Amino acid sequence: MPARATAAIPHPTHAAHSATAWDEALIRRYDTSGPRYTSYPTALAFHDQFTADDFTQALERSNQHQRPLSLYVHVPFCRKICFYCACNKIATKNTGLAEPYLSRLDREMVLTARHLDTQRPVQQLHWGGGTPTFLSLAQMSDLVDRLDARFGLSMAPERDYAIEIDPREADVFTLRHLQSLGFNRLSLGVQDLNPQVQKAINRIQPRVLTETLMEEAHRLGFRSLNLDLIYGLPFQTEKSFADTLSQVIELNPARLSVFNYAHMPSRFAPQRRINEQDLPSADEKLAILHTTIEMLTSAGYIHIGMDHFARPDDSLAIAQRNGSLQRNFQGYSSHAQCDLIGLGVSAISRVDDVYAQNPTSLAHFEAALDQGRLATVKGLRLNQDDLIRRDVIERLMCDMQIDLAAIGQRWEINATDYFSAVLEQLRAAEQDGLLVRDGLSLTATPTGRLLIRHLAMAFDAHLPSQSAQRYSKIM
User: Fold this and answer.
1) 232 is in an annotated binding site
2) Topology of 21-38+383-463 in CATH?
3) Is the omega angle on the peptide bond into residue 130 within 30 degrees of 0, that is, cis?
4) Which residues of the chain are in CATH 3.80.30.20 domains?
5) Known binder of ligand: residue 191?
6) Does 439 show up as a binding residue in the annotation?
7) 128 annotated to bind ligand
8) Which residues of this UniProt protein bind [4Fe-4S] cluster (predicted)?
9) Has this prediction a pTM greater than 0.70?
């Protein structure tokens, strides 16, 4: 068994992390729909007038700054569909489908790398999906070889090379192979350990599968393990999820992501297989969240923000303490100031001052690359206001506080005038105890940390023109 969590390493804001102020009426009043701010502006602001040429120009501009690179590779294949899933995926047992996809990925790498100074270090690598472990061991090796040939991968100790793993189709040999390829961080999908819940979401996964992989990963010396859980799934109760959490705490992962299930069957077809009557009520979901925060903070985890928890000695918690935490399309990241290159169907890049997204259709993705061009179908070049507000929202989401005076100095603006409407809009949240204002310094209270998306929304200049129905509930 992995060792239990040690006592929390003290740091100055630990009380703010562990204290739980729980005003249910207030939380419910502010529990509206809103963005998760994995980017600002959000993907709803992307438009199809943004072309592959715009993206290649951004790649070339980015060489002037010499920022390190972060590579995200989307592997869309899954052997079975989990009914809750809202990811871009293709359900198939035919592993032969991966070969032509890997070939297209290589073409995309070649087309991208020709515009980049590939001496820039690749500090981060993340394989997501779908299920990256759908690939055979040989295919994984091939993909790493291609990435290394096109971009130059690193074996530096501080690299952050992560892969999402389905414990139902990985074993100790998989982990040993991934380690040999240079991966040093794993994210294991668990969602819930309750058999009734697992059956309802079409994901039967006994605890022993997860436990065996975690023991081997610890033995092999993987630097950080993350477990994904979801609350709000069918048949979950406060008591049943507390039982799952107790077992997870025993497993002692370095990080936990506890996502709020957003039931949106009109947008995500697999969710239509979930019976809405089996979902926990809004009251039960809040109780589950409350218990989750209480149990994890009592076990020594830091509530990073939103749905992320980490042990005090994990790089996420350390990055938050030193102000270098970043938020991107994979959630929170400890490596700030990287240009993110997204590879594969549906992948999004964040390079220089643009976002660029590939098509969500595999056929459209393949067709573009077969014609010898990048598959960019939409994106956005940020203007000065977007860049300023992105800075504010990202720091607020990562640090749970924002110094607008420092923002003013950084961007050479009069912050008092620039954000006067925002500060007026936040007055109600301040009066309700979600934030404390000291001049131009705003700090989220423990309750405000739970509702940080709401506070960030005040700075979002694009939000008034977007439909709230496209976003999930905050909690």
Assistant:
1) no
2) Arc Repressor Mutant, subunit A (1.10.10)
3) yes
4) 42-342
5) yes
6) no
7) no
8) 78, 82, 85
9) yes
Q: Strand pairing partners for 341?
A: 71
Question: Strand, helix or coil at 320?
Answer: helix
pLDDT tens track for 76-124: 999 989 999 988 888 898 888 899 999 999 999 999 999 999 999 999 9
Structure tokens at 237: 């109760």
> Residue 381 corresponds to which amino acid?
R
List, in sequence order, the alpha helices (H) in 221-266. 238-251
Q: Is the pLDDT of residue 444 over 90?
A: yes
86 annotated ligand binder:
yes
Residue 69 pLDDT exceeds 50? yes
Q: How many other β-carbons are positioned within 10 Å of the β-carbon of residue 242?
A: 16
Is 130 marked as binding a ligand?
A: yes
CATH class assigned to 42-342: alpha beta
- The reply to whether 228 sits in an annotated binding site is yes
Are residues 53 and 111 in contact, defined by beta-carbon separation less than 8 angstroms?
no
Left, alpha or beta for 94 (phi > 0: left; psi -120 to 50: alpha)? beta
Q: Is 348 annotated as a binding residue?
A: yes
Find out whether 82 is annotated in a ligand binding site.
yes
301 annotated ligand-binding residue: no
Q: What is the pLDDT of residues 295-354, one digit of tens each?
A: 999 999 999 988 999 999 999 999 999 999 999 888 898 877 899 999 999 999 999 999
With contact defined as beta carbons under 8 Å apart, do 227 and 190 qualify?
yes
Neighbouring CB atoms inside 10 A of 96's CB total 7
d(C-alpha 231, C-alpha 236), whole Å: 7
Question: Phi and psi (nearest 5°) for 302?
Answer: -90, 130
Q: Looking at the chain, which residues constitute the CATH 1.10.10.920 domain(s)?
A: 21-38+383-463
Residues 6+ apart with CB under 8 A from 92: 77, 78, 79
Q: Binding site annotation covers 407? A: no
Q: Is 85 assigned to a binding site?
A: yes
CA 85 from centre of chain: 15
Instruction: Give the pLDDT score at 8.
Output: 35
Q: For residue 328, which of 359, 351, 358 has the smallest C-alpha distance? A: 351
Are the beta carbons of 459 and 422 closer than 8 angstroms? yes
State both tokens at 177: 């192979």
415 is in an annotated binding site: no
Nearest-angstrom CA–CA distance, 265 and 275: 10
Place of tokens 């640090």: 399
**Residue 9's Cα: distance from chain center in Å?**
25
